[in-house]
Specification:
Rossmann fold; three-stranded parallel beta sheet; two-stranded parallel sheet; 13 helices
């Protein structure tokens, strides 16, 4: 059976875009693969975050994934920092990468602008080598990502391929998997930029999964659209309407053709109202399950401990193989 892996940083709050771009597809496919989810807490330290906040976020993410439908009999969920082989391999991957190519990574250039004057950028700079290790360590075949993460998966393939050429076939080379609809859900107030979980909590263009339902509805009703008055998908000419169509298509589990036909005669107000109601009901169901899990911290900690134990078993075996291949194991 092939392996699927995904990771999420315990910074910010999970958004509807995170669900559509990655979580949903992972849940749907988890029984078809050896499935792993790691909470990328080491990646989360590339910028300063209060230790108490990161601890709370780790538990929030665990509860949220469980609420969304993670099946622990099929999926391993664990903290990245509990499996030190990630860092070991990340350092080895840095030997396969040059300064120039890291400096050209799109996310490095964009995220560097967001750093505070007290943040240092080296962790952000070498982020791709650790991310490559996260994936290659488990010989992952498939990585569900949003469109903005595609470059990182391509870099992972590059590094794995270079290692394989030097030392012989060692790693499976992963493929990224984009959703057919919703690969990049955009900000409701500015449909030219993506909806981001690093946005401030009061951002009117970002739907956080744990938002109050009234706020969620208000955000959708105030979404920026256009003045044409017709509902159809055209990401370039009608980014606002196309964004809402993408959201409701995923919620209703319809193709873009089906959802465009369904709403073609709606007024913008009626369309937004239906999107708001359906998204709110969908999120409310997740929230109810989330709080049920979140109120049992001991269970969540046990889930992560069990997951780390299972992940370490896989990672240590692979790392021993790598140490032997490169000459470190006597």
């Amino acid at each position: 059976m092939k392996t699927m892996i995904t990771g999420v940083r315990p910074t910010g709050s999970i958004t509807l875009a995170n669900y559509i771009g990655g979580i949903r597809r992972f849940i749907e496919q988890q029984k078809e693969y050896n499935s792993l989810i790691f909470i990328a807490d080491i990646h989360g330290l590339t910028t300063y975050i209060n230790p108490n906040e990161i601890r709370s976020n780790i538990l929030d993410i665990t509860a949220l994934y469980l609420a969304c439908g993670i099946d622990l009999s099929h999926t391993i969920i664990f903290q990245q920092s509990d499996v030190l082989e990630h860092c070991n391999l990340g350092f080895l991957m840095s030997f396969q990468c040059g300064v120039g190519e890291l400096s050209r990574m799109t996310q490095y250039k964009s995220k560097k602008k967001e750093l505070s004057k007290n943040d240092k950028d080296m962790g952000l700079f070498i982020y791709p080598t650790l991310m490559a290790a996260d994936i290659l360590l488990y010989d992952a075949n498939v990585v569900p990502v949003g469109a903005d993460q595609r470059q990182h998966i391509e870099k992972t393939r590059d590094l794995g391929e270079r290692f394989n050429k030097v030392y012989g076939i060692t790693f499976e080379l992963p493929e990224y998997q984009l959703p057919k609809i919703g690969a990049k859900i955009m900000n409701l107030q500015n449909p030219e930029i993506k909806m981001s979980k690093s946005a401030p909590k009061d951002d009117k263009g970002t739907i956080f999964i744990l938002d109050d339902i009234k706020i969620t509805k208000q955000k959708i009703m105030s979404a920026i659209t256009d003045s044409e008055g017709k509902i159809y998908f055209d990401a370039e000419k009608k980014p606002g309407i196309s964004n809402l169509l993408s959201i409701i298509a995923v919620i209703d589990n319809l193709s873009m053709e089906e959802v465009s036909f369904k709403y073609k005669d709606y007024t913008y107000k009626d369309f937004k109202t239906e999107v708001a109601d359906k998204v709110a009901n969908f999120i409310l169901d997740i929230q109810n399950k989330f709080y049920s899990f979140r109120n049992n911290e001991e269970y969540l900690k046990q889930v992560l401990q069990d997951g780390a134990q299972r992940a370490r078993k896989l990672a240590s075996k692979k790392m021993e193989e790598i140490r032997r291949i490169v000459g470190l194991k006597l």
